[in-house]
Design a protein that fits this description.
Elements lengths: L1 E6 L3 E7 L4 E8 L1 H4 L4 H10 L7 E6 L5 H12 L3 E3 L9 E2 L9 H14 L3 E6 L2 E7 L4 E9 L1 H11 L19 H28 L6 E5 L2 H5 L7 E2 L3 H13 L7
Parallel strand pairs: 1-4, 4-5, 6-9, 7-10, 10-11
Antiparallel strand pairs: 1-2, 2-3, 7-8, 8-9
């Protein structure tokens, strides 16, 4: 069994996988790695998956300062090495991008998983702190993306920069026309972002020269947003971890046979 770890700015998503699938996953605060508090939730994950021994760890990270802490932990606690997915170690897709080292490794993992499932071209929309699009072209190359503020980032900004607009929890609005301030803000966020996504997908089809463009959604608000977006083919909450599994399987095949 192999441990998969996606280190994000706020949360870290971890999973245990074998050569064919992800067995179990969990989330923990990313800062717990720096504070020495990550061992317990990771050990609980392994217990849940009935894993006594790890062959290795595959991880990606957008917080470089936390990488040494993860490596030390898995080496000391489970006596295994950690392999990092980066633009230099990527497997499963090519890269056609001016400065590959600036691509977030989580975005590469998403692209690997989407390409493995749907082929090319394909687009991933990740609804996190930011709403990001990652594009794999018809040749199977990661070719770039789009970044917009996340839904909560947008509504939180309105709350923080105005005197009367409240902080709202993202949810499906009752109608497009809000009958109160909260519903008006939700309509702008949810319906507005659905319109943004639909238009960007339309333009991506034109730029890529394709009538068919599978769109895979992931991230915290993926299910909510995809519910009324016909252009979204599927929602995959574990997409980043699946990309890590596939990359690790390609680059460290011996790990999956132990």
């Amino acid at each position: 069994m192999v441990l998969l770890v996606d280190i994000g700015n706020t949360h870290t998503h971890a999973a245990v996988a074998d050569g064919e699938r992800i067995v179990a996953d969990t989330r923990l605060a990313s800062e717990s790695l720096a504070l020495g508090q990550a061992e317990r939730p990771l050990a609980k994950l392994l217990c849940l998956a009935k894993v006594n021994r790890l062959a290795g760890t595959v991880f990606c990270s957008v917080v470089p300062r936390l990488n040494p802490a993860l490596k030390r932990l898995v080496r000391a606690r489970w006596q295994c090495a950690a392999w990092q997915l980066t633009a230099r170690t990527v497997a499963g897709i090519g890269i056609d991008y001016p400065k590959p080292s600036t691509i977030g490794a989580d975005r590469l993992a998403n692209a690997i998983a989407a390409h493995a499932r749907f082929g090319a071209p394909v687009v991933v929309v990740d609804f996190g702190t930011a709403v990001t699009f990652d594009v794999v072209d018809a040749s199977g190359n990661y070719t770039g993306g789009i970044i917009a503020p996340g839904l909560s980032a947008m509504t939180d900004y309105l709350h923080e920069k105005t005197a009367l607009l409240p902080r709202v929890k993202i949810a499906e609005p009752e109608s497009v026309v809000g009958k109160n301030t909260r519903d008006a803000m939700l309509s702008g966020a949810v319906h507005g972002y659905r319109g943004l996504i639909a238009e960007l997908v339309r333009q991506l089809k034109r730029e890529l020269g394709t009538a068919k463009l599978p769109v895979v959604a992931t991230g915290g608000y993926a299910a909510l947003m995809a519910a009324k977006l016909p252009s979204v083919r599927c929602v995959e909450p574990r997409l980043t971890l699946e990309g890590l599994r596939l990359a690790g399987l390609a680059r460290r095949p011996a790990w999956w046979r132990t």
